[in-house]
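Translate sequence into structure tokens.
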Amino acid sequence: MEDNAVKPEVPMLGWSLTFLIVALLAALLGFTGLAGTAAGIAQALFVIFVVVFLVSLIFGRNRT
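Result follows.
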């Protein structure tokens, strides 16, 4: 039996983790300006992800 279920993707969370890893690597290598910028972007994307997630939990329910 073939499973055609659509897997939910969360690209915003993936980008947030990517920028977090870039920030950690940049900080480890001494690029403090790049590390600060990447960490700020990661933080902003994570906050947006959480807000969108909470809104989808509240308003995305099936009303059957």
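Note: The chain has one domain: 12-58.
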